[in-house]
Amino acid sequence: MRDIKLKYEDLTAQIDYVIITPIYIYYIECKNLIGNITVTDKGDFIREYTFNGKKIKKGIYSPLRQVEAQREVVRKIWEKNTSNVIKLFAANKFNHYRRVIVVAANPDTILNTNQAPKEIKYKILRADTLVKQIEYDFNHRESDEILDSQKKMEELAKSYVNLSIKDKINYYEFYKNKYCNNDKKINKEELKERLIGLRTNRSKEMNIPAYYVFTNDELDKLLELMPKTIEELKKANILSPVKIKVHGKYIINTINNKNGTTVL
Predict the structure, then answer these.
(1) Residue 102 — φ and ψ, nearest 5°?
(2) In this structure, is residue 211 part of a structural domain?
(3) For 231-248, what is each residue's pLDDT tens digit?
(4) How many domains does the chain have?
(5) Do the Cβ atoms of 71 and 98 come closer than 8 Å?
(6) Does residue 262 lie in a domain region?
(7) What is the domain range of residue 175?
(8) CATH of the domain at 202
(9) What CA–CA distance (Å, rounded) separates 227 from 170?
(10) By 3-state DSSP, what share of the chain in percent is helix, strand and coil, each rounded to 5?
(11) Which residue from 6, 176, 193, 199 lies 20 to 30 Å from 145 (Cα-Cα)?
(12) H or E segment and range at residue 221
């Protein structure tokens, strides 16, 4: 299944792909990045690419931490809807049966995980090795693990679909803003970098995970709909009321500021 969006209280998780097998469920974060990706011995992601003849090397927000955060939202939903008896015996195996993988989808990307910590190497793959990893996991499962039937897997799939949020986007406003706006065209890549910088700064200042400011899915929608005021931000239905209250003015100032400096 693809594009499964789940919500628990103020937290949301937009999972690119959910793969259900007879034994494990995989949450896939798919990245189609231009350039080469290196994972350091600390688990940090470094991206290298060439732009206008200039070689650029920069760190990027860890997609592995991102998909792990999405799994935590699933855990909270599971804990809310599961009996205490089942939680008592199954909680410590939650991550074991629900695995996370980052997939580099661009066939031209060189993925270097030689220095990556051993425990995360198998979680960062090229698209052409994904099936082999799933086969490896299946063939090396523990002897006492019980395989789900086809019917059980279909029931699990339906539960994800039923829980998934259906976004209500005003497409008239979306395409009007995208194609009929006479304002000076904004460089979306530059704005994206500024918003990511804002998210990083806010998370450090408040000592919270970056996705508490806004998720990558919410970032994409901010770039699509480009709200210029708090009212437009509320009507766009991108962020929760709590996020708007805490971070809204910083986000709006970043979008409106041509120099890239957040105005308080």
Answers:
(1) -105, 125
(2) yes
(3) 999 988 899 999 999 999
(4) 2
(5) yes
(6) no
(7) 171-256
(8) 1.10.150.80
(9) 13
(10) 50, 20, 30
(11) 6
(12) helix 216-225
